[in-house]
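ARCHIVE CARD
Drawer: 12
Card no.: 0347
Subject: one protein chain, sequence and derived structure
Cross-reference: see card 0346
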Amino acid sequence: MTKFLINNKKESIFFRLSVLVLFLLAILSIIPTFRAFSFFNYLWATSLICYVALIFFDDSSYFLHSDTYKFSIFFFIFYTIFIPILFGNNEIGNRFFELSQLPIYFIAFDYNNRKGRIDKNIKIIKSLIPVIVIISLITVLEYRDDPSISRALKSSKGIGTDKLLKGVGGYDFIYFLVFFCSILIFNKRLIKFKNKAITSVFYFFTLLLFTTNIFLSNFSTAFLLISLAIFLRFLGKKYPLLG
């Protein structure tokens, strides 16, 4: 079970900057418009390197005393991204590069928790909910005209640029949605209003919207992952991801 820490010590400038860069990475992950620009991969890679460098300067011991989970993540990123690129398979490398957001967010969650700053994760997640709801609505409405639009965004650059600029979520957004929706399934308190009835209605609306988006996307792996999360939730397995 994850232990959540509270740290009242003053935050270093490196940690504060790392939180800002983490928020930038999250924004880049969910807003499709950014991916329409040719420099997106460079921006994402630069932000990712900056984030890792900032938490290293803030607390190098986090990397020097690596555990099995962190080692597995770094090995996964190296093997799935750098090895294909080194052997000339840029398409596979770029695809896993997009999916690297998932293990990186685990690193961010784990690091902030160990620093006793789990509240930073919660604030970032809460601030993203309205943006994700808007993009999900745009994408679900787009499915009426083209049921395979999210898959088309992955394979067709011509169609992709136009739809991404309109805010339609593609391959990367759907898998981010799987990650985000799984958190909501196990952590209802992330959505909270003064009125309990409004809280419940908005929570179930948001959850229904996100899962509908995933199911309509026609990505079998995403479907299996979110189905597993729902299955575990109904089994009563509640994991304290956010304290």
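Annotation on reverse: The two ends are 11 Å apart (CA to CA). Residues 13-234 form one domain.
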